[in-house]
Amino acid sequence: MNDTPVVYIVDDEAAVRDALHLLLKREPFTVEACASAEDFLARPLAECHGCVIVDVRMPGTDGLQLQEELARRGIALPVIFLTGHGDIPMSVRAIKGGAVDFLTKPVGAERLLSAIHAALAESGRLRAHTTGSRQAASCMALLTAREREVMLLALAGHANKEIARRLGISHRTVEIHRAHIMRKTGAANLLDLARIAAVAALAAPVPLIRKC
Questions:
Q1: 21-29 contacts: CB < 8 A, separation 24 or more?
Q2: What's the pTM value of the predicted model, to 2 decimals?
């Protein structure tokens, strides 16, 4: 992943793109301007760390549709709306869709920068979560089908003897599987294993875990 944040400006008005680029060019992030949502979506965005400042009303795909398309594609770029033609229903829809802010033109430099920094902080949080999820999923992918069965039963609070009875295997075999599970996932204990499994979306966090 690229560590340099990118702030995208998506606006069909060249004067707006130029003014924002001039305002932001001295900030510690890269600024890229796009004249349309289609131009923006054609770029490699999946691994991007940054945010997008987008107008609501544009020819073709508008800002709200762009926000929905980003969500559909699973692209975790926080959105800031900046428009001269906004209304309350638009702003409600944007915020419900996860927008960081809904600003109206003209906007003060301090107000815009505050929104950008909030969006970049959110982007960092989302990226860290994505990285953690991928690492957890990679660990879980190392487990055999039987090891996953043992893991899920252990996380549900079942003791080794009960797991052995349910799976029709020996108590010793369960112990071996559990040792393999802990080694492959790098979990320090059962609570740590529950966290890794939850992040990997293989199991929900367990409200109660008994010692086995």
A1: 23/109, 23/112, 24/116, 27/113, 27/116, 29/4, 29/5, 29/120
A2: 0.64
| Tokens matching residue 176 | 């071996």
Structure tokens at 68: 């929905």
The total number of residues shown for the chain amounts to 212
What is the rounded distance in angstroms from the CA atom of residue 45 to the CA atom of residue 69?
12
**Per-residue pLDDT tens over the stretch 22-53:** 999 889 899 999 999 999 999 988 778 899 99
Query: What would the pLDDT profile of 170-193 be if each residue is shown by its tens digit?
Result: 999 999 999 999 999 888 888 888
Instruction: Tell me the residue type at 17.
Output: R
Place of tokens 């033109």: 105
Q: What is the DSSP string of 14-70?
A: HHHHHHHHHHHTTSSSEEEEESSHHHHHTS--TT--EEEEE-SS-SSS-HHHHHHHH
